[in-house]
Structure formats: C-alpha cells, structure tokens
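Structure, all three chains, one model.
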Amino acid sequence: MIERFEQTPRMSRIVRHNGVVYLCGQVGNAGESVADQTKECLRRVEVLLEQAGSSPKHILQTVIWLSDMKHFDEMNAVWDAWVEQGHAPARACGEAKLARPDLQVEMIVTAAVADDS
Amino acid sequence: MIERFEQTPRMSRIVRHNGVVYLCGQVGNAGESVADQTKECLRRVEVLLEQAGSSPKHILQTVIWLSDMKHFDEMNAVWDAWVEQGHAPARACGEAKLARPDLQVEMIVTAAVADDS
Amino acid sequence: MIERFEQTPRMSRIVRHNGVVYLCGQVGNAGESVADQTKECLRRVEVLLEQAGSSPKHILQTVIWLSDMKHFDEMNAVWDAWVEQGHAPARACGEAKLARPDLQVEMIVTAAVADDS
C-alpha cells in the first residue's frame, strides 16, 4: 500500500510504502543565511517525519544539495548539532543550484517508519 | 530476490527488489526542446514502469535534474499535466549538467510494484 | 530494525533496514586521476558492502556525481570493467561539484542484503 500525505497536484510531501518514508526535497526560507536555511529545512524535515510516523532517529539516508560548496562548513555546523547521536543516517552532499537562486540548501530524506525499527 | 530487466554491460534499466522498482536515469531525445525532452522522458518512464509491473500511479520518488534551472517552468508544465492526480510522488529538482550537453532533463524514478500497493 | 555501521557524529557509512543497505557517498583519494579515484571509490564500496552483508552483485542503484562531465568516459571505463556482468544496477550520472575541489567522482550506492536475494 502507498500512502501519501500533504499532496499537491505536483507532488506529495510525504510518501510511505513498505515501512519506508520518502520526503520531497526540503528547503529553508529563501534569502536567509545558510545556517538559518539549514535550521529551517531540518525543522520542516522533523515536522514531516513526525506526520509520517517516523522521526529524526529513523532517517536512513539524506542527500544534501548545496547551491555552492563554499557553504559546506556552515551547513555542517547546523547538521552536526542536529543529528541524533547514535542514529546518524547515510549521507551524501553535492553542489546543485536549486529551484530559486536565493535557496542555498536542499535535503532529500528517506526514513524508516518508527514502529518498524 | 533481485530482478533485472533491460540489462546492458553498464547498467540495468530496471531493477526490482522487495516490491520496489529502481529505474536508471531517464532522458528524452537530445537536442529537442525542454518540453519535448520532458514528454519523451516521461513516456520512457511509463514504458519501463509497465515492464516492471508498476505504473505512473505507483511512483514513490522522482529526483529531477535540469541542465539549467531556467528550464524549471517548462519542465513543470509537462510534469504537472502528466502526474496522476491523487498519486503524486515525492519529488526533488536540482541543477546538474547531464551526460550530453544537449540533454536538458533527467529523471531518477523509484516506484512500487503495482500488486504490492 | 535499523542497523548502522561505521558511525561518526555526522553520518553512518552504512545503514541497513528491511533488507536494503544505504551507503554514504563514496569517493576516492583527492588529487588522483579520475580513473584512480573511480577505482578507489569502487574498492571502498566493495569493502562497505561486504561489511554490510551485501556485495557488488547486490547493488540496486548507483547515483554517480562527476565534478565535470568531461570525466564521463574515463569514469565509465573503470566502471564498465568493474560491474558484475549479469548483476548491473540501475544507474544515473550527473555533474555536481563535490566536497573538495580535487575530488572528481562520488557514488551513492543502494544495495540489497545478500541473503535476501
């Protein structure tokens, strides 16, 4: 069974299938600092995961896109403080321009359903 | 069990495992307009999903790469008209140059096997 | 159940869940040739997959990032020789600058647990 939450005509913010949760790419508020965009992005990830019956402790993989690799350290400082120790996901980070030029960070999160793990 | 379809020495166009279908990155015809490349890309996705025992209604996640973010609206116009309403996948879209300079859009699709959902 | 191996405060090199293995993005040695970085990247993938109870024959999907698409043929020559014939994964390859400017290739690997397939 496929379950979808927060669906628009273009995408579902959450798709759940076989105990796995797929979130649509999350960003922060355009125009803010890299640190603030990262914080807001992670806050939105938390909200969506909770809604999906998952949590930050159940993230399997996160792919991070930065608009410019020079933001790597600023993003990581927020990420490192946020990751649940003992529950760190697999991760990859590459440079990709995002949907709007004033967006600096996007995260693609795959997680496990909480009661499944 | 892992099942592979349309296998070349380099990759399998379809890999199926545990009720989930992984497609290799799909593109349209090089040199055509962004809209036409998007249409052809989505047509190929449909063919592969059908072959895999899935369908556009069973897509879990689509990651979209555009060679230039200026193509965002042109790609989205085709995408929005194509998505099965009520069955929209999770989605992310970032800028990445593709294997050939005259390719403008590539989609990485993960889907559920149809009888599994 | 989620199992994590080779965990740092930032990420886990291996995450295993529901018979699927997620590796963190793998690279080679910065500054070496594209061919050598690709070989070392694939060697690291092999080591991690073995540790995860998987193998190169069980890769479901590989997303490849190249710092510059001009490296496509050089990376592919190593990849093509490495892929287990009859066990080729789904694959996508796009251009993305990586965490360090002297890194040229990164691979994001998803695989099946071996006894599961």
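Residues 2-116 of chain C form a domain with the 60s Ribosomal Protein L30; Chain: A; fold (CATH 3.30.1330.40).
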